[in-house]
């Protein structure tokens, strides 16, 4: 599966990488993690901390799949607003998800700082109304979050123009967000995991998973096999290939990055920005004073067609951003596109699936804040393997039911 097109910024920025050998022998371990991106790295960290022996395999080079095309926004805000999520699952469940994501953002920020050599910064998040008829909805969302203890401001048109140079009706400014270099983050986590006893094999593709009552046998494309007690499928958007049913819809998302802006980015240097329209326009800065702008999602999941769309989609994004932020000069330095997946309700899937039974867990951190979901999912899987249940396990499971 071809997951990306063009020149993703993180691949160009982090061109040099450690190489790990392919697995060319039969192997045994306690937990096998299929995948070696940011989700797999966070899961590995949790399972190693619980005292388990962990092996990771990836059909590519570690971190070079979906992670390298991510824009790596760390937000507690789910693509589905709190009020809408509450209508689907009940307000208590919606608040559980939002509060877990808020705690996860804070935890990820602390973790990335402790690892060092990871570009990471605390940010704020500005969510603005794309159309006049969204204004009331944004005000209601702000009021609901404030009522339940979230630190937010509701900004009207004049304040948005004065403080952010943004032409929009209403904005919701959240105090908790961050941005990170996802490739650096994944690599540092994987290096730490290996120092703590994990094994990593690149260019090692899985052909099939055969579960049993006491574990699983994983067959590789090269004819070798891995016997383990547990499997975690953390293969990004390719994880759906292990299931018969379609649990999420694959789409393509587009982005570009500017050259460094010598005069700075002003208030956008400390704030990620996104809108109420779906698909949404979003923007974030980088530590070297660039802007990453993304969106223009479509239903194309054919690599050749996605490749052909990168330039035109980047130009549309540039024009859309300029219409909102007229004072920010933009020149496209690199543009790219990547596959992403979204679930009907905006929530991820973590845990076992009926097809494989309790020994095989999926880590499908789908949606606009996948890294945040991954931090929660890693703890869900650790708790399950320890015979416990994380508070979010039911809400993020394959068996969840909404209204």
What does this structure look like?
It is a single chain. With 403 residues, the chain is α+β, with helices and mostly antiparallel strands. The chain has 2 domains: 4-69 and 183-247 and 346-385, FAD/NAD(P)-binding domain (3-Layer(bba) Sandwich), CATH 3.50.50.60; 121-177 and 251-342, 2-Layer Sandwich (D-Amino Acid Oxidase, Chain A, domain 2), CATH 3.30.9. The protein contains 10 helices and 18 strands. The protein has helices at 9-13, 38-49, 66-69, 82-89, 91-115, 135-147, 157-164, 182-195, 303-324, 370-385; strands spanning 4-6, 27-34, 54-57, 73-75, 120-128, 152-156, 170-180, 199-201, 206-211, 216-220, 225-233, 249-258, 271-275, 282-285, 291-298, 332-342, 349-352, 360-364. The strands form 2 sheets. Strands 1, 4, 5, 6, 7, 12, 13, 14, 15 and 16 form a 10-stranded mixed sheet that branches. A hairpin with a 4-residue loop joins strand 10 (216-220) and strand 11 (225-233). The longest helix is centred in the N-terminal third of the chain and has 25 residues, at 91-115. Mean pLDDT is 91; it is low at 1-5. Keywords: Oxidoreductase.
The CATH class of the largest domain turns out to be Alpha Beta
Helix and strand content put the structural class at alpha+beta
Measured distance between first and last alpha carbons: 34 Å
Strand content: 25-35%
Say what the CATH topology of the largest domain is. Answer: FAD/NAD(P)-binding domain
| CATH-assigned homologous superfamily of the largest domain | FAD/NAD(P)-binding domain
Q: Any idea what the shape is?
A: globular
Major sheet description: 10 strands, mixed
Supply Rg.
Answer: 21 Å
Order of helices and strands: EHEHEHEHHEHEHEHEEEEEEEEHEEEH
> Would you identify the CATH architecture of the largest domain?
3-Layer(bba) Sandwich
Q: Which runs of at least 5 residues are low in confidence (pLDDT < 50)?
A: 1-5
Tally of structural domains: 2
| Helical content band | 25-40%
Keywords: Oxidoreductase
Organism: Dokdonella immobilis
Protein name: Glycine/D-amino acid oxidase
Domain FAD dependent oxidoreductase: 30-381
């Amino acid at each position: 599966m071809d997951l990306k097109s063009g020149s993703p910024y993180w691949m160009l920025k982090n061109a040099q990488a450690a190489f790990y050998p392919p697995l060319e022998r039969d192997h045994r371990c306690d937990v096998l993690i299929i995948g070696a991106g940011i989700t797999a790295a966070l899961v590995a960290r949790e399972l190693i901390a619980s005292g388990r022996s962990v092996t990771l395999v990836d059909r590519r080079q570690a971190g070079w799949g979906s992670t390298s095309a991510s824009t790596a926004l760390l937000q507690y805000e789910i693509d589905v607003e709190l009020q809408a999520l509450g209508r689907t699952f009940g307000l208590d469940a919606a608040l559980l998800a939002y509060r877990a994501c808020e705690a996860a953002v804070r935890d990820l920020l602390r973790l990335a700082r402790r690892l060092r050599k990871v570009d990471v910064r605390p940010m704020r998040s500005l969510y603005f109304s794309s159309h006049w008829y969204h204004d009331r909805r944004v005000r209601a969302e702000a009021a609901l979050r404030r009522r339940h203890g979230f630190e937010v401001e509701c900004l009207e048109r004049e304040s948005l123009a004065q403080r952010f140079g943004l032409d929009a009706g209403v904005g919701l400014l959240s105090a908790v967000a961050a941005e990170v270099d996802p490739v650096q983050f994944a690599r540092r986590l994987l290096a730490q995991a290996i120092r703590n006893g994990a094994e990593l094999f690149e260019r090692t593709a899985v052909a099939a998973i055969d579960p049993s009552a006491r574990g699983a046998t994983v067959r590789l494309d090269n004819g070798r096999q891995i016997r383990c007690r547990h499997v975690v499928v953390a293969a990004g958007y390719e994880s759906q290939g292990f299931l018969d049913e379609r649990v999420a819809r694959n789409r393509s998302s587009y982005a570009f990055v500017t050259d460094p802006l010598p005069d700075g980015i002003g208030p956008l240097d400390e704030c990620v920005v996104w809108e109420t329209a779906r698909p949404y326009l979003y923007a974030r800065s980088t530590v070297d004073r660039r802007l990453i702008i993304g969106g223009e999602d479509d239903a194309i999941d054919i690599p050749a067609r996605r490749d052909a769309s990168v330039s035109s989609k980047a130009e549309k994004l540039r024009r859309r951003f300029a219409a909102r932020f007229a004072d920010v000069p933009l020149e496209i330095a690199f543009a790219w596109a990547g596959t992403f997946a979204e679930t009907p309700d905006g929530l991820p899937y973590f845990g076992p699936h009926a097809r494989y039974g309790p020994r095989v867990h999926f880590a499908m951190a789908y949606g606009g804040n996948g890294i945040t979901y991954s931090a929660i999912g890693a703890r869900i899987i650790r708790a399950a393997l320890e015979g416990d249940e994380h508070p979010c396990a039911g809400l993020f499971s394959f068996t969840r039911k909404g209204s």
